[in-house]
Design a protein that fits this description.
2 copies of one chain form a homodimer.
Chain A: H1 7-18, E1 33-38, E2 41-51, H2 52-55, H3 62-80, E3 86-93, H4 99-115, E4 119-127, E5 132-141, E6 157-160, H5 166-175, H6 185-193, H7 199-208, E7 211-216, H8 221-232, E8 235-238, H9 245-254, H10 258-264, E9 271-275, H11 280-286, E10 291-297, E11 303-307, E12 310-313, H12 322-327
Helix pairs in contact in A: 3-4, 3-7, 5-6, 5-9, 9-10
Chain lengths: 328, 328
C-alpha cells in the first residue's frame, strides 16, 4: 500500500479500534477470522479485496482477475485446513464496463469457485472508478482441527507445498517494457495469471494432526516464515531456499538475485507449514507436494537460511502491491 | 448504477452464471444469502458495498460513511429476523488518506457494529482511487424462523416500521445548491447521515411467527412492495402512504410530490412486512413502531395505493444511486 501510511500501519490502527474490549479466538492477523458459535463449532470468515489499479498486472484478463480473487480467499482457508462453504462477491465496476466484461469477470469468479467446490451465494454490485472485487469466504470448523500460526515447536520440520519465485519473476517480466523471447516466459506469466490455492493439501495436512502451524505465502515466503516465528515465539532456520527452476534461470538471465525472488517475491499461494518431526515422513506420503526446507529452533523469533556456503538473516520484508514494486 | 448496464441487468447476468446447476434455499435477490449446513441450521451471509463517489453524499463524514456501511448490512439481517454475529470489512482507501481519516472510518464502523451487538472480526485493506467500504455480515439461523419474501397471503396486513420520505428529502436538500434555513432541515439530513437498522423490531417480528414476508426498504418503499408482491404472487393495496411529517413539509415548500418522496425515494432502512390479520394487534403490541398501511390481495403482482380521493398504480421504480438522481 504505497499511500501515506503502510498497509500494516493501517491494519494496526483499525484492529486497535475493533479489538478494544473484545477477545477473539484467533489473532486479527491470522489467515482467517473465527467466530465461536459453540465450544465445538467456529464460523470461519476471510475477505480478500482485489483492486484493478494495484492488483491486476498488465496482461491479466478480467476472467483471470475474477478467478484470482477467489484463489486468494480460498488460499487462506487452505492454510488453516478448512473448506470454504460459500463465497460472497462484491463488485465495484467502472461505468465503461459492458455486458462482455461482466460476463468475463463473472465466469472467472465462477470457475474459481468450482475449482474449490464452493459456491458463490451472493454479493453486491456498485459503480466505482476502479475495478474492485471483494471476495469473502465462509465456512465452519471444529476448533480442534484448525491449524493456527502459533503452534510451531523447536524440532518441527519447516516445509512448503511448492517452489518459489516464478510468480515474482513473472510479474517482473510483465512489468518490464522489453518483450522476452524465451521458452520459459509462459511458465512465469502463468504463475501470475493462473495461481492456484493448495486447498486439497491444506485439508489433508490438517487431518493428519501433525501440522503444528501453517500460513499461506501471499505476502511472500520471508514474511510468512517471520509470521510463524513471531506467532510461535521460535526461530526458523532454512537449510535450503526452495527456488523454482524457471525463476532461477530468469534471475541468471537478468542479473538479479534468485534468492531475492524466492524470499521476497509474491504473490505466491503455497502453504508454509511446520510439522512434527516424528510424523513428517508419514505426512509427506499423504501430501507428496510437501518439500522440507528447514527446522524450527529454540530462541527469539528470527529467520536464517543457508545460501551457498553462507548463512544469511532472512529479513521481515514482505510483498505489498505491485504498484509499489514498479516505483522501487 | 448509471453505467452502460443497469445494476439489475448486471445482477441478472451474474446470477445467471453463478446459479447454473445449483439450488439455493433463498432466491439470489432475497435480502440475504443462505447456506444450508444441516437441515436445522443455515449460515446467513450478506454483503453491502459502499462507494465514495456514488454512496456518500456531500456533507457526510467518513465516520458516518463507516457507520452507514454497517447499518446497510445489518438492515438486511433485520428484514429476515436474524442477528448478524460478525462483520468482515474490506476497505479500499485513497492514497491521500492519513491516520485521522482511517481512525474516523474505523470508529464509525465500530460504532455501527456496537449498536447492533455484532463484532468486526476481520477484513482487508487496499489502496484504491475511490473510497470503498464492503461490509459482509455473517450469522446463522434455524430455517423455520427466517422470514422470507415469498410468504405473503391474501388478507395479510401490510405494515412498515416507520414513516417514509425524510431520507429522500434530506438527500435533495444536500444535493441542492441553495442552503435551506428551516428548522426541520436537521431532521432530514440526519435521516441521510445517521440511518438506523430495525434489527430489534425484525428479531421480535420473526419470533412472533406471524410475519409472513419481509424486506428492508433500502431501494425505496415502492420497490420493496413490488418485490414482496412478485415473490409471493399477490397484489398489494395501500390504504395510506406512510409519509413523514418533515418530508411532507419539505415537499410542500418545494412544490414536489410528497407521495413521490415516500414511494420512490431511498435509502430508507425501515422494514416492510406482511402479518397475518388475526395476529396483527398482538404483534403490534410487541413492535409498537409498526404502522399498518394496507392489505395483501389475491391477484397478479401489482401494487396500488389510495392517494387522496384517487387510487394510483404504484410503479416498480426503485432507488438507485444518488449520482443518478443528480442527473435526473
Amino acid at each position: 500500500m504505497p499511500g501515506k501510511l503502510g498497509e500494516r500501519e493501517i491494519i494496526r490502527i483499525l484492529t486497535g479500534i475493533y479489538g478494544k474490549g473484545t477477545r477473539s479466538p484467533l489473532d486479527f492477523d491470522d489467515d482467517v477470522a473465527a467466530v465461536p458459535l459453540t465450544g465445538k463449532r467456529w464460523m470461519i470468515l476471510k475477505s480478500d479485496m482485489l483492486v484493478g489499479s494495484t492488483d491486476v498486472p498488465p496482461g491479466m484478463s478480467l476472467w483471470q482477475a475474477g478467478r484470482k480473487a477467489v484463489v486468494a480467499t480460498v488460499s487462506d482457508f487452505a492454510a488453516k485446513g478448512i473448506r470454504p462453504r460459500a463465497l460472497m462477491v462484491s463488485l465495484g465496476l467502472p461505468a465503461s464496463f459492458g455486458k462482455r466484461a461482466i460476463l468475463e469477470i463473472g465466469s472467472g469468479l465462477d470457475k474459481g469457485a468450482r475449482e474449490y467446490q464452493c459456491k458463490i451465494v451472493g454479493g453486491d454490485t456498485n459503480q466505482s472508478d476502479d475495478l474492485v472485487i471483494d471476495c469473502t469466504g465462509a465456512g465452519e470448523c471444529d476448533p480442534g482441527t484448525l491449524v493456527r500460526r502459533d503452534g510451531a515447536r523447536p524440532g518441527d520440520v519447516v516445509a512448503v507445498t511448492g517452489k518459489f519465485g516464478n510468480s515474482a519473476a513473472g510479474l517482473r517480466l510483465l512489468l518490464s517494457k522489453k518483450k522476452m523471447n524465451w521458452s520459459r516466459a509462459g511458465t512465469l506469466t502463468r504463475a501470475v495469471f493462473l495461481p492456484r490455492a493448495r486447498l486439497k493439501e491444506g485439508l489433508i495436512l490438517a487431518r493428519t494432526g501433525m501440522a503444528t502451524s501453517s500460513i499461506d505465502s501471499s505476502d511472500g515466503l520471508a514474511w510468512s516464515l517471520h509470521e510463524l516465528a513471531r506467532s510461535s515465539s521460535v526461530g526458523i532456520h532454512l537449510e535450503t531456499v526452495p527456488l523454482a527452476r524457471e525463476a532461477k534461470e530468469f534471475a541468471e538471465k537478468n542479473g538479479i538475485s534468485p534468492v531475492e525472488l524466492a524470499l521476497y517475491g509474491g504473490e505466491e499461494y503455497e502453504l508454509v507449514v511446520t510439522v512434527r518431526r516424528e510424523g513428517f515422513e508419514r505426512v509427506r506420503r499423504r501430501v507428496p507436494a510437501l518439500i522440507p526446507i528447514g527446522r524450527v529452533r529454540q530462541g527469539p523469533p528470527a529467520v536464517t537460511a543457508n545460501v551457498g556456503e553462507k548463512t544469511i538473516r532472512v529479513e521481515a520484508r514482505g510483498w505489498e502491491h505491485f504498484r509499489k514494486n514498479v516505483n522501487d
